[in-house]
Amino acid sequence: MLLEFYGGAGCVTGSCHILKVNNTNILLDCGMFQGKDGHKGENFNFPFEPRKIDYVILSHGHIDHSGRIPYLYKMGFEGKVVATNATKELCEVMLKDSGNIQEMECEHKNKYRREKGEEELEPLYTLKDAENSMKLFYGYDYNKEIQLNKSIKIKFRDAGHLLGSAITELFINDNGEEKKIVYSGDLGNKSRPIIKDPSTVYNGDYVIMESTYGDENHKEGNYFVELIEIIKETINKKGNVIIPCFSIGRTQEILYILNGYVEKGEIKCKVFVDSPLAKEATEVFKNNEFVFDEEAKKLLNLGDDPLDFKNLSFTKNVEDSKCINSHKDSCIIISSSGMCDAGRIKYHILNNIEDEKNSIIFVGYQCNGTLGRKILNKDKEVKILGKIKSVNAKVYNINGLSGHADKKGILSWIDGFEGNPKKIILVHGEDKVREKLAQTLENKGYNVIKPFPGDKITL
């Protein structure tokens, strides 16, 4: 068996690993590079032949894990994309939205290139490519044995990171000997809204494991209360609250939190969700209520929709988005993208960042090189849509709302194995962070490998 790494190795985006076994080529995720990770055009480069890939095993729908599947299809991939049912449903809306964005951004660039007489660019993929790639998706339930071929079967376990997110157990008959590989995907936090806690896996010969927050623990305390207190303080000052949020996952969790406080009358301001994708994704969440955690199911049984409440408004188009700026009273604006590197959130930050009454609350990881990371790093000025803006708004970071397990969570999950795996292969983490987690794991007696793009490991 051979493992090759082409993304999400020494960085946190572009997850893409190949498992080669018995003449079968399996791609573990096919994600898009974001922020500084993709600043040299990495998204257009597959250092392998897409036509030779037999399967894509997709851990979950976030764009840094799924975002290049339409491009893989465009470049000749004709195999199967294997995922949970909920992941398949989320990708239906997310990848089509991504294709639309690719086309619009390319056209925006080409407008200026045409004026300069330069050669026009081609989008990474189109809306049509995304639609066609969905024909290759096959959805399955958690804990179901899935036979890929005579020598390979898999099971999806709940990763607790996003609706439909999966830890993948791969059972491989390698020349008569069964070996087990565990791919963690992105591990979630415990006790998060809506989503169940990550499943325990009890054994595995080799573990490919994420390391996003491998060097730190999320701040202790009730992050629900922390979020609400910041909101209340900002609204009392007549300011606006801006929450950069991924349309899928984090937005729904924030709505779930706000729901309780709105119903108790503690928050009375208007809440805008400025992302058509978020509205579609929220409907997918509602269609998959059977995989919610017990607390969310209890609310539903009481007739309370935890993703809907008074004064909540989803925008439908660009005109609706622009109207938010003319809203006179204080409000909460939830908008994508979560790292502020694209989407409507850039306009809301542009319009609110210089007013000290306003607050910007980060609730997810900010990749190196993104606008979100620059604001979080407390740069005095940032460039947004070609304009230099002073950072006068209050900036907060609530790590407890992150979809990723922290160092303690990662260690708790791997320590749940009955006996040490032969090798732990750390991916999906900035190299400095990954190095610290590796040291911790090695001190506990684990054999750790830290691959970079292009590295190959024989198992």
From TrEMBL:
Residues 251-375 form the Beta-Casp domain. One of its GO terms (molecular function) is RNA endonuclease activity. The lineage of its organism: Bacteria, Bacillati, Bacillota, Clostridia, Eubacteriales. Residues 13-246 form the Metallo-beta-lactamase domain. Keywords: Hydrolase. Gene3D superfamilies: 3.40.50.10890, Ribonuclease Z/Hydroxyacylglutathione hydrolase-like (3.60.15.10). This is Metallo-beta-lactamase family protein. Pfam families: Beta-Casp (PF10996), Lactamase_B (PF00753), RMMBL (PF07521). It comes from Clostridium frigidicarnis. SUPFAM superfamilies: Metallo-hydrolase/oxidoreductase (SSF56281). The keyword Transmembrane does not apply. InterPro entries: Beta_Casp, MBL, Metallo-B-lactamas, RibonucZ/Hydroxyglut_hydro, RMMBL.
